[in-house]
Amino acid sequence: MTKQNKTLDTLVQDIYEVIEVLNEDEAIDIPEDMYEQFGRDMEDALRHWATPVDRPKNGLRMSNIGRPLRRLWYDLNTEQEKEQIDAPTFIKFLYGHLLEVLLLFFVRLAGHVVESEQKEVTVSGIKGHMDSVIDGEVIDVKTASGYAFKKFKDGTLAQNDSFGYLSQLAGYEKAEKTNNGGFLVMNKETGELTVFIPDDLEKPNITHRIKEVKQAVKRKTPPEYCYPPIPDGVSGNMKLPRDCTWCPHKFECHKDANDGQGLRTFEYAKGRVYLTQVEKLPNVQEVI
Q1: DSSP per position, the chain
Q2: pLDDT tens track of the chain, all 288 residues?
Q3: What global pTM score does this model have?
């Protein structure tokens, strides 16, 4: 198979075949110019990670246009202290960047064509920088935990796309005038790769989505809750669902919880739980 006629449906297998020659005590044939390009790309990723970039405060971008409307409303309409990120999380961001560089290196090594890396595009006034075009289609490159990877491998992303990946993809495809792109994803825990190409019906009409978002963030009051509270076991207590626990606006968003007291936070062994309704006091430390 030549480089010119390789397609996305064989991408993962082509990468695996290149790597698995190591089982035969054969060296992987890596051209010298690919070694050099890989080094430059890793350097660029490291520099980007180590250098903060000034961005307009909480502006709309292709990377966030698919987030829930209430989250975006708070992003654009409330003052908030800059989120403090601990060192382990910064390290996690770094190896995510480096692994994405590695993934595109594997794609090239397997003979597939990579173009338009970090190309800036604009759709209906919303700007974004897409990861790549591979074999003529927009491909978003991601690394994921085992839990998140399963959504891509099983093709169930549309059922829980809290980060708005499908809207982001739709935006890039609108700009590139293509429609068969998707995601190249690595499971950070196992090294497994998958390509997920969503159906057209799973992707939003990005022009309508952008219009909806622009209208929503101009409202005087926030839209409905992104996700309703869920039961915390059988005690009668109600808690924030998983996708709300990471939101920086959760305390403001749920300030009316617990009859106006706001969220109550409890420190369980598995992590913090945010209760919107306390019927039975948990037998763990409450965080004040």
Answers
A1: --GGG--GGGHHHHHHHHHGGGGGTPPP---HHHHHHHHHHHHHHHHHHHS-----TT---TTTTTS-HHHHHHHHHS--PPPP--HHHHHHHHHHHHHHHHHHHHHHHTT--EE-TTEEEEETTEEEEE-EEETTEEEEEEEE-HHHHHHHHTT-GGGS-TT-HHHHHHHHHHHHT----EEEEEETTT--EEEE---GGGS--HHHHHHHHHHHTTSSS--S-SS--EE-TTSS-EE--HHHHT-TTHHHHTTTHHHHT--EEEEETTEEEEEEE-SS--SSEEE-
A2: 344 578 999 999 999 999 999 999 999 999 999 999 999 999 999 999 999 876 555 589 999 999 999 999 999 998 766 667 889 989 999 999 999 999 999 999 999 999 999 999 999 999 999 999 999 999 999 999 999 999 999 999 999 998 999 999 999 999 999 999 999 999 999 999 999 999 999 999 999 999 999 999 999 999 999 999 999 999 999 999 999 998 999 999 999 999 999 999 999 999 999 999 999 999 999 998
A3: 0.89
